[in-house]
Amino acid sequence: MTVTVHRGSAICAILRTAPRETFGSSVTFCGVVISFPHRTNSGELSIDATEIPKVLSPCLQSLPLELLDQEARIRNRHTDLLVNQQTADTLRLRSRIIQRVREFFLNREFMEVETPILADGAGGAIARAFKTSASEFPERELSLRIAPELWLKRLVLGGFDRIFEIGRSFRNEGLDLTHNPEFTTCEFYMAYADLEELIGMTESLLKELARVSTDSKAEDLKSLPPLDLDFTTPFKRIDFITAIESIIGRPLPDLTAPDAVSTLLHLFADLSIPPPASPTLPRLLDKLSVQYLEPQCKTPTFITHHPECLSPLSKSFLHPTTHQRVSARAELFVHGRELVNTYEEENSPFEQRRKFTEQLKYRDEENEARVDESYLEALEWGLPPTGGWGCGMDRLCMLFAGTGRIGDVLSFGTLRNVVAVGGGKGGRG
C-alpha cells in the first residue's frame, strides 16, 4: 500500500514531529497504515490514522508531472517508467510477446535450451564479433556469440529434434534506430521441416502475436497505439532474383562467374546506384534487395530464394526459372524491416566446406568469415534434414508496440544510453 501525504491533509498533524528537511512538502509511505477512511471538513477524501505510519522508504525527490525530453527520459529510466504510462506499457507488452513465443514452441513439443555465449570463435552469421579474454585462458582470444545457430544444430545432431533458444547475441557493429550491439533473438531448429513448413509456422506465430497485442491494448495497455497491420495468411511472397530482374528490366549476370562482381558494378553504374563501401558479391546483391525489394514489404512479405552466396549455411538448388544457384531460404519483412530469417539447413559436410571456403573471398571488416573445422567435423555425424528459424525479438516487440526506436523496447535503452548512465551521467533532470 502506498500513501502520499500532502501538507494540509488530516494526517499531516501526526507527522509534525518528523524532521521537515527529511521529507520536504510531501511524503510517500510504503507499508501498512493503521487507519480508516473519512472526509475532511472541506469534503476532501482522506484517512484518519490511529497510529503514526512507519516510513519504509522516503521519497526524497519530487516526481514530475511529465517527462518529455527524450534524453532525460533515457538517463532517468526509472522516473520515465513512473511518469510515462506508454513507456511502462511497452515493456509489459514485450514481456507478454516473449512469453507467448515461448508458449508457441512449448505447445508444439519443442524443448528450450541454452547454448554458450563465450567461445573461441563466433559463427552462425556474417558480423563482427566482440573480443574478450578469460583469466583461465589469458593467451586465447575469446568472442561473444553473434548467433547461437551452430551450437543449436550440434544439439540436433545429438538427437534433439525440436529445440529453441531465446537469448542474447552480440555484434560489434553500428547503432541506429533499429540496431543495438546487444540484442535478443529466438532461434528454433526442427528436424525434417522444409521451407514451406517453416513459412507456415512463421505465419501462425505472427498471427497469434497480433491477437495477443490487440487484446492487451484493448484490455489494459491502452496507452499503446492500435495495430494497423493485416496479418491475414498467406503472406505475400517475392522471389529475390526474378523480382529484381523484373524491376530493372534486364537479367542479372551469372553469379557464379569469375567476373560477376565487375559485371554487377557496371550494372550499378547503369542504374545510378552507389555501390557499397566494400563491393563484394554478397554486399552488392544485398544492396539491390535494399534498393528494390525491401521497400515493397510494407505488409508482411517473404523474400525467398536468395542467391547462394548470401546464405552459406543454407541448402541451395538451381532455380528453375533463372538457372542461378539459390538458397532454400525466406526472410520475413514488415514495414521494410527484416523480422525473420528461415531456411533449410545445409547438412552435407562437403557442401558446407565448399560454402565456407567460398565465403573467405568476401572477408572484410565486418565479415570475419572462417572455415569452422569443428562444425564441419560435427556434420560428419549426420545432421538430419533440418529447418532453422531466427527472429530478432527486439524488432518484433517494436512492431507490435508501434514504436520506431529499438531503445523504446529495451529496459534501459540502447548501448549508448547504458554507457551514459553507467558513466555517471544520469543526473536528476
Describe the protein.
33% of the residues lie in helices and 21% in strands. It has helices at 20-23, 70-75, 77-83, 85-106, 149-157, 195-219, 240-248, 260-270, 281-293, 349-359, 373-379, 393-401, 415-422; strands at 2-6, 26-30, 35-39, 45-49, 111-112, 118-119, 131-134, 137-144, 162-170, 182-191, 236-239, 301-304, 316-318, 325-327, 329-334, 337-344, 386-392. The protein has an eight-stranded mixed β-sheet with strand order 5-9-10-17-16-15-12-11, sandwiched between helices. Strands 6-8-7 form a three-stranded antiparallel β-sheet, with no helix packed on it. A hairpin with a 6-residue loop joins strand 13 (316-318) and strand 14. Helix 3 (77-83) crosses helix 4 (85-106) and helix 7 (240-248) packs across helix 9. It is elongated, with a radius of gyration of 27 Å. The chain starts with a strand and ends in a 7-residue tail after the last helix.
What is this structure, in a nutshell?
The protein has 13 helices and 17 strands. The protein has 429 residues and is α+β, with helices and mostly antiparallel strands.
